[in-house]
Amino acid sequence: MIFSMTGFASVATELDFGSLAVELRAVNHRYLDLQVRMPDELRMLEPMLREILAAGLTRGKVECRVAFSARQSGQNPAQINLSLVQLLAQWSREVQDILPGASGLSVADVLRWNGVLQNPSAPADTLQAILPDLVRQVLREFTEARRREGEKMQDFLQQRIEQIETLCATVAPRIPAAIAAYEEKLAARLQTVLQTGEDERLRQEITLFASKIDVDEELTRLQAHLTEMKRVLAKGGVAGKRLDFLMQELHREANTLGAKSVDAEVSRVSMEMKLIIEQMREQIQNIE
Length: 288
Description:
The structure is a single chain. The chain is α+β, with helices and mostly antiparallel strands. The protein folds into three domains: 7-73 and 124-146, Ribosomal Protein S5, domain 2 (2-Layer Sandwich), CATH 3.30.230; 79-118; 147-284, Butyryl-CoA Dehydrogenase, subunit A, domain 3 (Up-down Bundle). It has helices spanning 46-56, 82-98, 107-112, 124-171, 174-194, 199-213, 216-235, 240-259, 264-284; strands at 7-15, 18-27, 32-37, 60-70, 79-80, 117-118. It has a four-stranded mixed β-sheet with strand order 1-2-4-3, with helices on one face. A two-stranded antiparallel ribbon has the order 5-6. Helix 1 packs parallel to helix 4 (124-171), helix 4 packs antiparallel against helix 9 (264-284) and helix 8 (240-259) runs antiparallel to helix 9 (264-284). The longest helix has 48 residues, at 124-171. 19% of the residues are buried. Belongs to the YicC/YloC family. This is YicC domain protein.
């Protein structure tokens, strides 16, 4: 299977003293760009966390968030940082000395001040023992979500490959008719201008025209690129860069096909191919 670079997963576990949660989200990126946000008491585990994630990811801009929420209890409630409260009181008095009309801090203002209420610290050793398994679990769920999205992309690309193959099949039969029409037109023009039946000159002109509109090579290369796409999709794994390169090659051949066209239907086919290729390219940007 192929995998999408975009995805989201989160897991959490409840502990006696609070809850520990890990969240993964990702968008497309040329390389692996891993950002980790976690509490300071767990920061020492960041290298280990990065190692686990890097082993399961290849490309994408990935953000990993680790959050701990302490549980309050009557036996171990939050504590007030008295030194900070005293400092706030001192600042309030100093401001009122300068600005007598200024309002003082209320109790609610003080309690909302960052750092005034101190939650009981979680046992760091317990969190450190639990976090690696939690990260591996969220990575498995994240990978599964990316696999499901990749499966949808694979079906989409397979359908577009079939559409291009169908369009290719309509081009080749039209070339002999285009040459025959040109031969008739050229013969009439030469006979009118030269008043002679210069068969050799006529054959040369037709041969030159046929070589200019010959699209066998383009159709062969288009089919070769489509076959390679099928092989890459069937193989699975990290395929995004390879598929993106194939999109460039497909677009080149479809463009050349349009440039050689002397038939309105072939021109339409070329345009339709380029639209389908662009649709595929948009999806491929999200493939790992």
